[in-house]
Amino acid sequence: MTTIDYSVWDHIEVSDDEDETHPNIDTPSLFRWRHQARVERMEAFMKKGEELEKSLTESRRKLAEAQRRVQELVSASTPEAKADLAKAQEEEKQLKKQERSWEKKMQEHRIEEKKMPWNVDTLSKEGFSKSVVNVKPEKEEETEEEKEEKHKTFVEKYEKQIKHFGMLRRWDDSQKYLSDNPHLVCEETANYLVIMCIDLEVEEKHALMEQVAHQTIVMQFILELSKSLKVDPRGCFRQFFAKIKTADQQYQDAFNDELESFKERVRGRAKIRIEKALKEYEEEERQKRLGPGGLDPVEVYETLPPVRHTHTTWSTETVTILLMTSSRAACAVESLFSTR
């Protein structure tokens, strides 16, 4: 016989409305005081969580800034920069330690939240108090010029790092590199990797294209995860790697399917670019050949009837040279073959 598991109700804080009190105690006032104390405890706990979240976000911001500073000093060659590099690296190390500390505190807070008993204030919440649609304010859309300038500035700073990430393959290597360079976890990196894939395919470097394509989908999955969780992508990329490394076959298949689909799109885009470049080249060569009246000597020659031998024998090569070099190509051809 199946038994009912009542353990799920162990953490419910039962209402004290039925508690017996001393006749001389104002029972309604006592219940109000108890309720007020419970509400204040809940508010203090929520406030603590908000402060931890703010501290963690600020810690990550400072770490990203410190890592950017280290990269600038590494690429600089002045004596002053080299002297400041050790100091900047030490600061980066301390900020990483602070980030881990805040993450641990945040995790402990979440565990504590799950252990908190339910009560009348948490079991049910107000659904709505007004008969209006609550529309979430949309973030102001960037113009195309702003996006382009933002992408250009980012690539100028971090192109070398993006390319390095694009050449990684192992999950652990990718996670560590993004942990050391969290500023790379953004749309600009994903966009650059897409362009890099198309360039490699155009250059017929197919194996390299497939390698970078893998990292492109890694970045795309991280960005999609951040959207679904509504958090900064720099704060959730570790969750992606934890999930992909322990995921079931269905999740792995979804990743691989998206990867194959992306590679096909890259090949299609590269083919279009090559065809366009060939057409532009052919048109450029044609413009160079144009004679008076806008006639192309090659096109004129190809439309002529077969050459017949007369008193003077003209070879095909001779006719071609004449057509290509004469400043009056059309008139020369008409004069040459008028008497047959």
From TrEMBL:
Q: Which residues form a coiled coil?
A: 49-112
Q: Which residues form the Cdc37 N-terminal domain?
A: 3-131
Where do the TM regions start and end?
none
Show where the Cdc37 Hsp90 binding domain sits: 124-285
Question: Which GO molecular function terms does the record list?
Answer: heat shock protein binding; protein kinase binding; protein-folding chaperone binding; unfolded protein binding
Subcellular location per the Swiss-Prot or TrEMBL entry: Cytoplasm
Query: Subunit notes for this chain?
Result: Forms a complex with Hsp90.
Similarity comment text for this entry: Belongs to the CDC37 family.
According to UniProt, the name of this protein is Hsp90 co-chaperone Cdc37
Give the organism the record lists.
Answer: Cyprinus carpio carpio
